[in-house]
Amino acid sequence: MMVPGRGGNKAKVKKMNKIKKNDTVYVLSGRDRGKTGRVFRVFPSKGKALVEGVNYVKKHMRKSQANPQGGIVQKESAIALSNIALYCKSCNKPARVGMNILTDGTKTRFCKRCEEVL
Ligand SMILES: [Zn+2]
Description:
Strand content: 35-45%
CATH class of the domain at 24-91: Mainly Beta
Bound molecules: zinc ion
Helix content: under 10%
Radius of gyration: 19 Å
């Protein structure tokens, strides 16, 4: 369906996604609060990420051809990006991330607290 008159000055500013695959992140809220883990998948469109060892859910599997026994399988479930933060190993806490853009356009992230490159 077409929406007439869309646009205007209310453009949403998308929060820059600082978290990438293989980052170590700190869980800010939820059941696994305080845990750290490695990101192994990011879903930018959903604003979620899969983090190793974080947000485990038990799935009850029905008996199937692939899984003739059925039973319970533990699996990571995606966690909202707003609930995780990049972790700074030298500060031992979630980093306050700053961004540097190098002359060649490469972006680097650093911890504002200790200036460690993340
Ligand atoms: Zn730091």
